[in-house]
Amino acid sequence: MIPAALAHRLSIPVIGSPLFIISNPDLVIAQCKAGVIGSFPSLNARPLPQFEEWLIRLNAELGPDDAPYAVNLIVHRSNDRLMEDLALCVKYKVPIIITSLGARADVNEAIHSYGGIVLHDIINDKFARKAIEKGADGLIAVAAGAGGHAGTTSPFALVQEIRKWFDGPLALSGSIASGAAVLGAIAMGADFGYIGSAFIATAEARADERYKQMIVDSSAVDIVYSSLFTGVHGNYLKPSITLAGMDPDHLPEGDVSTMDFGSGAAPKAWKEIWGCGQGIGAIDAVLPAAAFIAKLHREYDVARSRLGTVTDRAIAA
Q1: Separation of alpha carbons 190 and 212, rounded Å
Q2: Is residue 178 within 8 Å of residue 284, measured between CB atoms?
Q3: pLDDT of amino acid 2
Q4: CA torsion angle for 180, 196, 141, 147 (degrees, to 10)?
């Protein structure tokens, strides 16, 4: 269920996922003011002092009538900034923390110390149980078709397995790029649709304009699932792989030991290999974030009306 403290501040049950490199205060503020939870990875703000500047700005520009924002903390052992970022999140009382690539009880306890909420992203039921055991308040089910480090489990299977034992906040990620898909996630048992790739193709996103246009021009058939680029399997735009001089249909396996989120990490060799989920067939233009969210509203309302009509017919029959 959606925590009561959040429900009245959302215009539609959506979380904008934290987009590595791409999410920034302009995008997050636009999302929150349009009534969806905006988020960004703390590591997008480099060097560290910039992270504090971003938090100060978000707390100044977002008020009680706006949706809350979230910060994504990478809890991987290579992230040597984790504890410094966590301290700033506590200092500025970040409303929601999204933890990834590891679950730690001490991180959760620190967020709970000021009343913050922790959502942990997972790709299967085993990891979901571990996250809740270590004190996470809610889960983000990253199902097949999601952008970035996605799983392979059907969203239907993943949600129904989690809902057998967990009744807390649950977001669903995986090819959600329309209002109808958001309603579908809610019908399955999730509390939120978790949208990432569609927000890359917005005016405020800090993404290469070629990246945004490639999303507009592509569809599910243009997505490749590979571990080469980070060591962990994820979904990527096939045309970006081709432009880098590689055969997207014959990629070698990656090495998970190469995954590095340290502050001294070398520049990424694959910086123009662009992550993306399978839902992008619904994206046909680069829009301001507020305009895209308004489109989600219209589609959500139409889908809900259509569902009501179908239900009425079934009852009548």
Answers
A1: 28
A2: no
A3: 63
A4: 110
